[in-house]
């Protein structure tokens, strides 16, 4: 049995949506005509997750405090749902 969490968020109506997306997922920054590459980490960079749809991700329950804290710091409205995945074979 695995405990998973589904987190839903919305960037609708936000002028800084690209900035927030970069803070959530991370991005690569390039300089000197792409000669140098600088990976910038986001909240989800070191955490295994599945993107279910636009604005909806699923991850293990043990990462919930870190992720929720990051989203709260970004002042995003979130909805968190805990689910249990059971394999019946």
Task: Please describe what this structure looks like.
Helix content is 21%, strand content 40%. It has 89 residues and is α+β, with helices and mostly antiparallel strands. The strands form 2 sheets. It has a 4-stranded antiparallel β-sheet, with helices on one face. A two-stranded antiparallel sheet has the order 2-3. The protein is globular.
Residue share in helices? Answer: 10-25%
What is the average per-residue confidence, as pLDDT, rounded to a whole number?
94
Uncertain ranges: none
Number of domains: 1
**In the CATH hierarchy, what is the architecture at level 2?**
2-Layer Sandwich
Radius of gyration: 15 Å
Distance between the termini: 12 Å
Strand content: 35-45%
Spatial order of the strands in the main sheet?
Answer: 4-5-1-6
- Count of distinct strands: 6
Q: Quick one: CATH class? A: Alpha Beta
Number of helix segments? 2
Strand pairing plus helix content: what structural class?
alpha+beta
How would you describe the shape? globular
Q: List the quaternary state of the chains.
A: single chain
Short description:
The protein is built from 2 helices and 6 strands.
Q: Which key features would you list for this structure?
A:
89 residues, alpha+beta, Alpha-Beta Plaits, four-stranded antiparallel β-sheet, two-stranded antiparallel ribbon, 2 helices, 21% helix, globular
Write the layout of secondary structure elements.
Elements: E1 2-9, H1 17-25, E2 27-31, E3 36-40, E4 49-53, E5 56-60, H2 64-73, E6 78-85
Antiparallel strand pairs: 1-5, 1-6, 2-3, 4-5
């Amino acid at each position: 049995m695995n405990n998973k969490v589904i987190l839903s968020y919305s960037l609708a109506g936000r002028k800084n949506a690209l900035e927030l997306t970069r803070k959530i997922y991370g991005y690569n920054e390039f300089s000197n005509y792409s000669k140098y590459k600088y990976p910038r980490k986001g909240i989800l960079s070191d955490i295994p997750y599945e993107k279910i749809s636009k604005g909806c991700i699923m991850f293990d329950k043990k990462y919930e405090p870190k992720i929720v804290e990051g989203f709260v710091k970004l002042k995003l409205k979130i909805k968190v749902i805990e689910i249990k995945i059971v394999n019946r074979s």
